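Why this split exists: single-chain examples teach little about how molecules sit against one another. For that reason, every record in the complexes split bundles all components of an assembly together and asks for one structure covering all of them. Below is a record exactly as it appears in the raw files.
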Amino acid sequence: MEITVMQAILIGIACWLGSCENAQPLGIGFSDALSRPIVGGTIVGFILGDVATGITIGAAVQAMYLGQVLIGGVATADMAFVSYPSIALAMLAGADATVAVTLAATVGVLGAAVFTGYEILCSVFYSLGDKFIANNDIKKMKLTYMVLPPLTSFVIRFGITFSIVMLGSAYAADLLAAIPEIVLHIASVLGGILPAVGISILVTYTLKDFKFIIYFLIGIVCITFLELNMVATAVVGMCLAVMYYMFIGGQNESTTQQNDDDVEEDELL
Amino acid sequence: MSEKVETVKAEDNKVTLTKQEVNKSWWIWFKYCLTVFGYERLQAPGFTLSMLPILKKFYSKDPDKMVARLKCHSVFYNTNPVFGAMVNGIVASMEVERGNGAKITDEFINSIKVGLMGPLAGIGDAVTQATLPPIILSIAIGLSSGGSPLGAVFAVLGLYLSQMALSRLFYMQGYKSGREAVSKLLGKQMTKIQDAMSVLGLTVVGAITASYVNLTITTQYVSEYSTINFQEILDGIFPKLIPMCLVLLGYYLLKKKKMSAVKLIGVYLVIAIVLGVLGIV
């Protein structure tokens, strides 16, 4: 597939708009939505003039990144780089969904490294902001906090995406053909395992007491043995949460602090 | 003339924020909470910016106090952007009290910010990262089968509207209840809610594990009399046993071994290479 300079520019801008560190005119929720591969795939498909392929690839890549989280500024994969340049590259190379997923996994990890660099670079803005606050120069502080970071991010996001996509249109197909079978196989195996990284992080943050692992097991059993879908499982989870709140929560303390517990029960009633 | 009226008002009954000012403070947080996304102080600039409309109202003619207030807010801050809006609401209402002459120290405000950002991040991440997006996106994947753009439209609307509605709700709740909310949020009740949320979060995380982590053993033991398919045997015992073990391994390495997420990716890469080269998967 060929690509024009205009198309590459549009994809570069889309990647910038879909990066979480940018304040969008519509707020954080919007860039969060744009950063998802299923949305990115659709947008890239529109730009490249093949919507159906874009969406198919986007949906496949999305499936891998359903458990993707960004906690405390630590990302295991950069979603904006996954959703725009990697999907565009896969489309340009004429790759099928499986190869696209592998490609996305690779770009995602490399993108996370770039993003970490940006996060370190941001220290400049903090110290600059401090300087203007000390001088009560609110206008310049606003400039430092609101305008300079998106500009910096634009240079990085747009620059990288634009060059990858332009180079990719010339070399991606040949490059993909030159990769040995075993490497592609390993990458696709890795693509299957990688969601476990985001999920492990989530478990680390939500599991305070190891006994709670039973709910993780319930979630697995709902899908495998009971063959429920995601929405039904979430409803089961919600019911369990309410039941926990009503009947179980607070009993841990009841052995040590009987009186407090009684008071709390009264409050509940 | 109007200034005079306002000072008189301040003496008699307290200066309150107009609805627009409250809305503006929330909107700035929703828009700029992740601006200057660096490890050093993460969401501190976003928090400072969202307090600006309130601080300007009280201290626009008092540069010293303005600088002091801005400095107070530009310390490390990091929470869930959506649920954390509640802290902005609470602190905004405290800033109003303070502007009206109530004795609230910087330490008190900061201790509230630090005390609340953790619990709210815990619940918020369980809901806005572990629960809502996987559900919305898995529906979106279903809708987009056959190359329909409906999935993307659904994903954008679902993610955006849910986050905006929750963020606004939490900000306004925090602003309305102010300091009273703090004791509630840090009390026992909150621990229970946190635990209940992690029940929900873990159930969904289990479902994601079973749906989207894949490692299938393809190797078979072939002898003269029979063929043993290892994956079939495993499926007979407990389907998705391997993905579950992979996640538990990840949890063990992250939590107990204090390994970084990047190193964990390396571990999985080694597993994929070893198993792939040996032809087990």
